[in-house]
Amino acid sequence: MVSTNTGSQFGSLSATSLVFNSYLMVKGKKAQSYYEVSGLAPVEEEQASDPAKAKLASKANKAKIGYANTYRLEPYNRVWNYLVRSKAQAILMSKLQQDEYDGASSLSLCALISEEILKAVKELNFDRYKYAVSVLIVEKANQAMEVASRWVWDVQRDTWVSAEYETNTFFALALVVACYYE
Q: Which of 114, 134, 143 is nearest to 177 (CA)?
C-alpha cells in the first residue's frame, strides 16, 4: 500500500490503482497530480501570460497512461521473402528499365528507389518488423565488386532479401533487411 499525505479523499491507494486514480483526477475534476501520487516532485508551473503557453504547460503536467508489455515473442504475420523479393524486383525493373548509367543522378535515383521499396514492403503489413533498405547502382566497367553487411541478428525472426537488375551499362542491387521489433 502506498500512503499519500495530500489530505484528499484518497488516503491509501494500491499500486495498481495509482495510475488509474491519477488519470481520473487529471481527466476529471481536480485533486492530485500524477507526481504527487507516485511520489515524484512536480514540475514547477510558470504563470504564462500567453494562453497557448499556459495550455502547453497544463498538458505537460497531465498523467500519461502506460500500457503493460505483451511479452509476445513471435509475430502474427512473418515476413515472406518471396513477396518482398518480387516487390523489390518489380520496382527495380520499372524504374531502371530505360535508364543509362549516369553518375550524377544515380544518388538521387537510389534514394527514390529505396523509398519506394520501403513503402511497398510496409504495405505488406508484416507484424512488428522494422526495415532497412539499401540500393546500389554501379557502372559496368569490367571490375569486380563485393558487397558486405554486418548486423546484430536474431536468426529465428530476422531476415534479409536481395533483388538485382542488370542492363548493358550498370548493375543495380537492392537489399531489404527486416528486423523483428518486440
A: 134
Task: Report pLDDT for 57.
Answer: 63
* Predicted confidence (pLDDT) per residue in 92-137, tens digit: 999 998 888 888 888 999 999 999 999 999 999 998 899 999 999 9
Instruction: Give the pLDDT mean for 46-62.
Output: 62
The per-residue pLDDT for 81 is 94
Beta pairing, strands 12-13 & 159-166: unpaired
Q: Is the dihedral of CA 5, 10, 12, 17 positive or negative?
A: negative
Q: How far apart are CA 37 and CA 12, in angstroms?
A: 10
- The packing angle between helices 81-96 and 106-122, to 10°, is 150
Q: Helix, strand or coil for residue 15?
A: helix
Of residues 97, 65, 84, the one with CA closest to residue 132: 84
